[in-house]
Amino acid sequence: MRRVAVVSTGVIGASWAAHFLAHGLDVVATDPAPDAEERLRAEVATHWPVLERGGLADGASPQRLSFTADPAEAVADADFVQENGPEREDVKHALFAVIDAAARPEVVLASSSSGLLPSTIARGALEHPERVLVGHPFNPPHLIPLVEVVPGEKTAEESVETAMAFYAAVGKRPIRVRREVPGHIANRLQAALWQEAYSLVERGVATVADIDTAISQGPGLRWAVLGPFLNQHLSGGPGGIAHILEHLGPPTEKWWRDLRSVTLTPELVATLVAGVDDELDGVDSAELVTRRDAVLNALLAAKTGAGL
């Protein structure tokens, strides 16, 4: 594959475009916003230095980016389509009706949707729903390797295999989601953590900054290397995860029973926002993103060097 269409170029779409360009692909982008092309090129330029430090493919260049306001024109000659429109069924259906009619029949139409089911999205693709699936990245896609590939009820196995192979070829770590569920896998795991984090703030157990520190300076460091199951296994010594489940399973079940559901009331939202504002007092957000991305780049290089 040499040409990718990036449909809608907000934060996720722009990051995808930069990633594909860094891997030596031609990218044709489309977005209806009047200033979309200018914003996109500025975002790609912002991402390019960290991509250069991570290593570019032969021929990689921002000059291989083209733009059109017409989504049908954008996908007409594409070998793969990555859609990134708003998380609304009506918008997805209207968009997929256009790109399904315009793209070559064998071309996969992948949505970056973070929560919508691919079977729902595919209702807009009246001609070829079998080539519609979710290819959900993690933000920022130009750095984070994970892509969740989620087939829908009508998705052909060939489309799944094509998407898995394509993402792997451009440096991603795709996983196949075996059943459709709202939010897929990683977002559901995040949502579980957020629920308890918000609850702990609401109950006065910890501040926003305390919780960020608890994760970023604690389990988050291990999670960045290995997943929850392997970390549990290594924590169990010679007995591994079997030992952990036998000895820490019962108290863990008690903790589960004490976890609280939470409602995002206006008061709680205000508390969370104020907590983040306090945590970022005197910190330049743009500079924080730059430092975060530099650490992510170094971490990914270290993981690759260690065979992880």
Automatic annotation (TrEMBL):
<comment type="pathway">
    <text>Lipid metabolism; butanoate metabolism.</text>
</comment>
<dbReference type="InterPro" id="IPR006176">
    <property type="entry name" value="3-OHacyl-CoA_DH_NAD-bd"/>
</dbReference>
<dbReference type="Pfam" id="PF00725">
    <property type="entry name" value="3HCDH"/>
</dbReference>
<dbReference type="Pfam" id="PF02737">
    <property type="entry name" value="3HCDH_N"/>
</dbReference>
<dbReference type="InterPro" id="IPR013328">
    <property type="entry name" value="6PGD_dom2"/>
</dbReference>
<comment type="similarity">
    <text>Belongs to the 3-hydroxyacyl-CoA dehydrogenase family.</text>
</comment>
<protein>
    <submittedName>
        <fullName>3-hydroxyacyl-CoA dehydrogenase NAD-binding domain-containing protein</fullName>
    </submittedName>
</protein>
<dbReference type="InterPro" id="IPR036291">
    <property type="entry name" value="NAD(P)-bd_dom_sf"/>
</dbReference>
<feature type="domain" description="3-hydroxyacyl-CoA dehydrogenase C-terminal">
    <location>
        <begin position="183"/>
        <end position="251"/>
    </location>
</feature>
<dbReference type="InterPro" id="IPR008927">
    <property type="entry name" value="6-PGluconate_DH-like_C_sf"/>
</dbReference>
<dbReference type="InterPro" id="IPR006108">
    <property type="entry name" value="3HC_DH_C"/>
</dbReference>
<keyword id="KW-0560">Oxidoreductase</keyword>
<feature type="domain" description="3-hydroxyacyl-CoA dehydrogenase NAD binding">
    <location>
        <begin position="4"/>
        <end position="179"/>
    </location>
</feature>
